[in-house]
Amino acid sequence: MSTPRTRREFLTAVGQGMMVASVGASLASDLGLASARADEVAEPLSFGSLEPLVTLMQETPIQRLLPTLVEQLKRGTELQSLLAAGALANARTFGGEDYVGFHTMMALAPSYHMAHELPEPRQALPVLKVLYRNTNRIQEHGGRQSEVLKKVGTEPLSAGQNGGEALQAAVRAANVERAERTFAGLAQSSPIDAFNDLLYSVQDHTDVHRIVLPYRSWDLLGLIGQEHAHTLLRQSVRFCVKAESWPQSDRRDQPKTLLPKLLDQYHLAGRSPGDRAADDEWVDQMSQTIFKSTPEQAAEATAAALAEGFAPAELGEAISLAANQLVLRDAGRTARDEVPGKPIGSVHGDSIGVHACDSANAWRNIARIGNARNVFASLILGAYQVALDRVDRGGDFLHWDPLPVARHVESLTTSDPDSLLKEADLAIRGNLQARACAVVHRYDQLGHPARPVFDLLLGYAVSEDGALHAEKYYRTVSEEFASTRPAFRWRQLTALARVTASEYGRPAAGCEEARELLKLA
Fold first, then answer.
1. Could you give the CA distance from residue 406 to residue 444 in angstroms, rounded to a whole number?
2. 291-302: buried (b, 16+ CB within 10 Å) or exposed (e) per residue?
3. 39 burial level (CB within 10 Å; 0-12, 13-18, 19+)
4. Closest C-alpha to 104, from 130, 81, 69
5. Around Cβ 362, how many Cβ atoms within 10 Å?
6. What residues have CB less than 8 Å from 177, skipping those under 6 apart?
7. What is the largest distance, in Å, between two alpha-carbon atoms of the chain?
8. Positive or negative, the Cα torsion across 59, 63, 66, 71?
9. Rounded to whole angstroms, what are the CA distances from 21 to 15, 33, 190?
10. How large a percentage of the chain has pLDDT more than 90?
11. 72: buried, middle or exposed (CB in 10 Å: 19+, 13-18, 0-12)?
């Protein structure tokens, strides 16, 4: 039974109620006048001129979604507007707390980047594919009746309090209300400052989704507008809070103590990142050090290199190449781990290698975006995570040889690029992972251009389901190929060929319908 109110408490509550009625619940919440109880401040989010499209994404029956979206395009609605509406509908519905939901969120920006690698008539296809998945999951989740994100008030910082540390304390306490209100206050400054503050909490653990979600949300802001930064980034706040309730091994929890120790030990706090260049041999050796080391050793080697003034880009490249080895060496899914859509020997979806590469790519890109402190932290933890993935998720990666297999490469007698592309296509359609790797490797050895290989693999990244990872991993490889030196960049494309051969034969829901509606041959 609740304690009876005093007369003063009663009159105060009445006064607050009158004030809320006069200024509106949203402003009252922002002013701290409204009660912090969720049932009293749970005013729905609304997105202004985009609201009709956002609602359409949530409420259109899935059987009518693609015809409705194609009709929108014919009427002149920009593909980018559909993407924005899908992202905001996803955020409002799931708030970063649904597995399929946040995977779909992370696929949206990659699908749009993929669209611009396609001929104009086909550009809508990858976006429509992901929007179909998005609305389908929203309706499975309960639609408008089950929205997670509501309007939220702010909680001011104490004098001299560090915003990132304040948010981190609320997250560690698993206090979602305080974390949300703290982040809402931080988001009032600027999107990049809020992003940098958010990273303190992200860096407490090295779960792949914890790392990739904020980066892919930030990537979306460049497409749909930074005015939506609070909506998209607060998903990561809620993800981090929810993750605090998950069982944590000592190793997975270690970043909380290891990161501050290394920043202090190597005097990185308060420093600016260096610009020391590295040659191919140094990057190769560093990638091997990260790959072969324990997680603690990999993190320390990276901190030491940063202290020596090596440029962040050089360390990011080494981390990415180490993660790439987890795709090229993977023995594939075991019988114990076989599930529908992911048979024995497969490496697509949430495989060790794909997860590691997506994480390394996110850490590397966060290091490009973040302030000096977060540059150092992201690269140290990026190296830690690659090494942890090698030792903590099973497999004998140090003794498994990387693809391609020499005899497969030697069996390829043609040097004609078109013939090799046909061989690659046949290998993919036959789910011959090693063969697909060998053909792409041979294509590179002969000095042929990369774009035709990307075009081949892009087609399958669009058509296949990929167990929620096709778009993200294709974009990861595209970004890594573009930012990796010529001596090593084709390893990324060879790995993508392997994953494509693994995922082939499981068409994405809605993709064929979208093709028909767009009148594609």
1. 14
2. bebebbebbbbb
3. exposed
4. 130
5. 28
6. 36, 38
7. 92
8. negative
9. 10, 11, 30
10. 88
11. middle
Which residue has 């290199």 as its token pair? 305
What is the topology classification, in CATH, of domain 406-511?
Answer: Zinc Finger, Delta Prime; domain 3 (1.20.272)
The residue type at 224 = I
- Cα–Cα distances (Å) from 254 to 205, 237, 244, 299, 392, in that order, read 8, 20, 14, 11, 13
Helix or strand run (H / E) with residue 63: helix 62-74
Q: Is 160 exposed, middle or buried (0-12, 13-18, 19+ CB in 10 A)?
A: exposed
d(CA 321, CA 281): 13
C-alpha to C-alpha distance for 425 and 500, rounded to whole angstroms: 10
CB atoms within 10 A of CB 490: 18
Cβ atoms of residues 322 and 495 within 8 Å: no
**In the numeric block, which tokens belong to residue 456?**
């081949």
Give the pair of three-digit tokens for residue 83.
């993407």
- CA-to-CA dists, residue 217 to 234, 290, 501, angstroms: 10, 28, 29
Query: Which phi and psi (to 5°) does residue 28 adopt?
Result: -60, -40
pTM assigned to the model: 0.91
The closest of 390, 348, 383 to 474, measured between CA atoms, is 348
Instruction: Please report the pLDDT score of residue 521 as a whole number.
Output: 72
List, in sequence order, the alpha helices (H) in 173-245.
176-186, 191-202, 208-224, 229-243
Mean pLDDT by groups of 10 residues along the chain of 521 residues: 40 42 40 42 89 97 98 98 98 97 98 98 98 98 94 92 96 97 96 98 96 98 96 98 81 88 97 98 98 97 98 98 98 93 96 97 97 98 97 90 96 97 98 98 98 98 97 98 98 98 98 97 72
Contacts of 431 (CB under 8 A, 6+ apart): 501, 502, 504, 505
Tell me which residue has tokens 């990739």. 212
Sequence spans of domains, the chain: 7-41, 48-146, 163-243, 255-392, 406-511
The answer to whether the beta carbons of residues 195 and 241 sit under 8 Å apart is no
Type of residue found at 264: D
CB atoms within 10 A of CB 459: 16
Nearest C-alpha neighbor of 299 from the set 314, 286, 309: 286
310 SS3 class = strand
Q: Sort residue 349 into left (φ over 0), alpha (ψ -120 to 50) or beta.
A: left
Q: What is the pLDDT of residue 14?
A: 42
User: What are the pLDDT digits (tens) for 283-304?
Assistant: 999 999 999 999 999 999 999 9
pLDDT in the model for residue 41: 52
Residue ranges of the alpha helices (H) in 266-369? 280-292, 295-307, 312-328, 352-369
Residue with tokens 């690029």: 417
Task: Give φ, ψ of 235 to 5 degrees.
Answer: -60, -40
Place of tokens 């190769």: 284
| Strand (E) or helix (H) holding 471 | helix 470-483
